[in-house]
Amino acid sequence: MVCKNPKNISLFCVIFLSAVFFSCQSLPKAPQAFLQESRFVPLDTGASVYIFSNVKQARQIIELLPIEELKDRQIRRMLDRTDFVAAAFFPPGSAKRFQLVTWGNYPSSRIRIAFRSNKNWKERTAADGYKYWHSAPDKLSIKLSSRQVFVLASLNDSPSDPVYRNPGAQIPEGFGDFGQAALLSCWIENPGPAISRLMNEAGVPLRFPVQKLFINFLSAGKSTAGSENIYEAVLRFQFDNPSQARGMAALLNLASGFVSDDQFFMLLTANPPVQNGNNLDIKTAPLGIKELSLLFEIISLY
Questions:
Q1: Which of these, 281, 245, 249, 265, lies nearest to 204 by C-alpha position?
Q2: What residues form DSSP beta bridges with 100?
Q3: How far is Cα 73 from Cα 111, in angstroms, rounded to an integer?
Q4: For site-directed labelling of 209, which of 108, 177, 192, 282 has its Cα 20 to 30 A away?
């Protein structure tokens, strides 16, 4: 899922900043409220990872995501003025790199002037009839209104409709309730192969037949010295049936007595797993910057 080539997004940021700089604090209220009020998210289906975040509360976590564009100065300025973002990251083999939607009050007339003044951006008409802007050099398509901005980054320079296809990606059952109080929430499609690989590297050759993985990142206060924010994560592994969840809990408990030198595995076994029907919930040990980076290895494998 690692996004590369920051140049592809820098021009977009220069234009988009003109909107975000003047934006008001508005929709939506919070990630968990948004997810609880809808069955679908306004992003396309087929992504590997879907992320939802209150940007101001989760800024430090967002900056650790394995996305090269986050190092871009323009992106950082954009994040300073953004409240809520939903993003989808697509697997290898897809024509799409990532898609995102942000909320706010945007002076769309100013942005249109900025687009028209740059020769790289051309106005296009989507199959559904709406207008959007496309930059072939940057492989980006953007649609904006006074309330929302949709962005699609592609692997080729052909125009692509940036707005999701109705009804959007279906939110997995239980994800909205699970994400209550989270600073950042995400779900991962088909995480089994990536988790099995991490387990094998830890010396635990387990096949992990998990169907979906939910992750919440929560605030856990400050470090003892008071100089570092501390977080914790709750991971929910969804299996086909309670028997698989129960068996995996037993295997993890057994393996925790034999593995003591793999940091990722130690994070997962700091607390006993809790079975809840088809689900297996794991609360990590407290997470500083170093530990957060380790946990993001799951996401970076996509």
A1: 265
A2: 87, 151
A3: 20
A4: 177
Q: 298: buried, middle or exposed (CB in 10 Å: 19+, 13-18, 0-12)?
A: buried
118's CB contacts (< 8 A; 6+ apart) are 11, 15
Residues belonging to the chain: 302
Provide the residue-wise pLDDT of the chain in tens; the chain has 302 residues. 444 444 444 444 433 433 333 333 334 444 456 677 778 999 999 999 999 988 888 888 888 876 666 776 656 766 676 778 899 999 988 999 999 887 766 666 766 777 788 888 899 999 889 999 999 988 889 888 777 778 898 998 888 899 999 899 999 988 988 877 789 999 999 888 888 887 787 777 878 889 999 999 999 888 877 778 899 999 999 999 999 999 989 888 887 777 667 777 777 788 999 999 999 999 998 888 888 887 776 666 55
Q: Which two tokens stand for residue 124?
A: 């296009």
Residue 53's DSSP bridge partners are: 85, 184
Could you give the count of Cα atoms lying within 13 Å of 8 in the half-sphere of its Cβ?
20
Helix runs in 237-296, H state only: 242-255, 263-268, 289-295
Contact 9, 153 (CB under 8 A): yes
Integer Cα distance of 112 and 7 in angstroms: 21
The DSSP result for 17-35, as a single string, is HHHHTT--S-S-S-HHHHH
Residue 98 and residue 87: Cα distance in Å, rounded?
A: 7
Residue 89: which of 268, 276, 302 has the closest Cα? 302
- CA separation, residue 278 to residues 213, 243, 253 (Å): 12, 8, 17
Q: Report the alpha-carbon distance of residue 144 to residue 16 in Å, rounded.
A: 10
Closest CA relative to residue 125, chosen from 143, 138, 137, 110: 143
